[in-house]
Write a structure and sequence with these properties.
nucleus, activator, globular, alpha/beta, protein tyrosine phosphatase activity, transcription, Rossmann fold, five-stranded parallel sheet, protein phosphatase
Amino acid sequence: QEYPTYTILGQSQYQTCYPSSGFEVITPADSNTESTALATTAYPTEKPNTMVPTQTVQRPSSGDASTSPSLSRAAASKELDEQARKSIPGKNRGKRKADTSSSQDSELERVFLWDLDETIIIFHSLLTGSYAQKYGKDPTLVIGSGLSMEEMIFEVADTHLFFNDLEECDQVHIEDVASDDNGQDLSNYSFSTDGFSGSGSNTNHSTSVGVQGGVDWMRKLAFRYRRVREIYDKYKTNVGGLLSPQKREALQRLRTDIEVLTDSWLETALKSLLLIQSRKNCVNILITTTQLVPALAKVLLYGLGEVFPIENIYSATKIGKESCFERIVSRFGKKVTYVVIGDGRDEEVAAKQHNMPFWRITNHADLVSLHQALELDFL
């Protein structure tokens, strides 16, 4: 294929990409160019989240997520997502706008498809205690930090991003209901009194609510996603602006604590993300199994908003990673090279299905070797 020369540094230590037969071994080079970037902005505080269709903790949760009390909220997530998918007849009507693409897309040569949890950040394994067990950390501290971050993620999602309204109206991409938006000025619009019911189960609203999936209902849904986009764009480099001074300090402390507990996992991953971002012909795309709105809250709270514009974030909760990959390929075309970076079976299988090289992240060394390979222009 197009990437026969990809190499893995210290291949005896690190997992190979797909297809493994096409990789050579090279001698790692020292890299002192790393700390270009952790100039991450102040990270405010709010609720962490994860929608767990298969392996991330979200309002619904995967099996092991039930080990922590606050995860009960996340526990039924997979089932809720399935129900939500069926509950909104209007959302898959084929009216979806094409994913936003800039003129810069035509100059792209390489698209990096990133998983979020356990790849860029450590989150799910904090909640389940598996990270503490794997690395010999204090499980009480690790799980406590995970639960605190989860709470912040859901708080931001609920308070600022309409997650109470949108939890059962989940979308894959921020533009998916944009065609139902009539462009109305929302400066004086009252979201709290417009009668929108995301679940469609409340029959006490006036008839102005509209039938779920109907034109009026879809327009109000689109208004909420438009406002979510505005808030994300406004605070993507300053999530602290969304938070009270106390919450902001709490978030900064929590992020520092998690970085210490995870031996600077996020900082290490950011080196590769920022290096890719610095290339004019490359782009970072995020595909997560967390529902879209909590995923946006999570990206903001972990200080990744500047690395991932909202149009480059996809949620695979409803459709799975393979279908997300198909959407991304239809957006950027087949002439660019796609590289998948993740820790899970989902993205690995999807990468293989689309014949994309896959870089597995299982530990810090994999992140370090990824950065070295990028610095040496092997990726």
